[in-house]
Amino acid sequence: WFEALIAPLRVEGYAPAAVIALRDLTEARRVERMRADFVANASHELRTPLASLLGFVETLQGPARDDPKARERFLGIMREQTQRMARLVDDLLSLSRIEQHLHLRPDTPVDLTMLVAHICDTLVPMAEDTGLSLEIDIAPNVITPGDRDELARVLENLVENAIKYGRPDGGEPGKIRVTLVTTAREAIFSVQDNGPGIAPEHIPRLTERFYRVDVGKSRAKGGTGLGLAIVKHIVLRHRGKLTIDSAPGMGAVFRVVLPSLRVDAEA
Ligand code: ADP
Predict the structure, then answer these.
(1) Which residues form the Histidine kinase domain (predicted)?
(2) What is the Cα–Cα distance from 9 to 15, expressed in whole angstroms?
(3) 3-state class of 44 per DSSP?
(4) Band of pLDDT at residue 265, cut at 50, 70 and 90
(5) Alpha-carbon gap, residue 222 to 217, rounded angstroms
(6) CB-facing half-sphere around the CA of 132: CA atoms within 13 A
(7) Ligand 1 test: best mutation among 206, 233, 246, most atoms within 8 Å of CB?
């Protein structure tokens, strides 16, 4: 799609002419369509739990009014739906804040060694509850320039996803391997699971907002569909790279490469 701007040109002694400027609108239209899709998706995602809440409120005011057992059960579901909406609104706000600051480079030195160890400590119970073991291999003194909270979010999201989606289908024991290594210039964080893996057609789309391979599974696990979009934006803001290697039946490896700061060995 092109937009044409036409200006008449008259110069004495010459035949009348015109200047035509063409502006490529393809990109502008693509961005506009993405924005419209995003608003439609976000509204739909909020509308679903809202509709369910309204249904339960009406039931509680009507048929279930004098049934203490049903009341207890419905209130439990309403609580879950409300928490889901709160998570969604929090994720939408985080994404919009990160996007607004995409051009700003956070540059406080962050000790990734400590951060990865801390995140793993907090997630071990969640992994064990799901029957997964967490194998952790963290290099010492890995420092990156960045924003600690945002980087914590990246690490947390990737390990949580491995716990949520990385359970092997068969009888194999579920294992998640978290590693942090460093080269002279880079810090490389990776999370590997031996779960069902991801088909190639899904991989490039996983970081799109609200894209899920299996919407039912994501919802059941409390997902908002925004986790990897947030991860991608944070990594970009930190001048890093996110890669996803996976194939059906082969598990998945999510890897984040960030610039590293040299640590003086004497220090
Ligand atoms: P959410 O988990 O809230 O659905 P995410 O953006 O974090 O959203 O992830 C998008 C989708 O990517 C998930 O719904 C799931 O289908 C897929 N996914 C993420 N991590 C893994 C993994 N380790 N193994 C298999 N699929 C995964």
Answers:
(1) 41-262
(2) 9
(3) helix
(4) low
(5) 9
(6) 30
(7) 206
pLDDT in tens, 52-105: 999 999 999 998 889 999 999 999 999 999 999 999 999 999 999 999 988 888
pLDDT at 266: 47
| Statement: residue 1 has pLDDT above 80 | no
Residues 6+ apart with CB under 8 A from 83: 222
Confidence grade of residue 180 (pLDDT, cut at 50, 70, 90): very high
Report yes or no: 242 and 232 within 8 Å, Cβ to Cβ: yes
Helix (H, G, I), strand (E, B) or coil at 252: strand
| Contact status, residue 241 vs residue 257, Cβ threshold 8 Å | yes
Strand partners, 40: none
Strand partners, 109: 145
Residue located nearest, by CA, to atom 13 of ligand 1: 212
CA distance 37 to 131: 38
Q: State the distance from the centre of ligand 1 to the C-alpha of 206, rounded, in angstroms.
A: 7
Task: Give Rg (Cα) of the chain.
Answer: 25
What value does the mean pLDDT take over residues 196-222?
Answer: 94
* Whole-structure pTM value: 0.87
Q: How many helices (H) and strands (E) does the chain have?
A: 6, 9
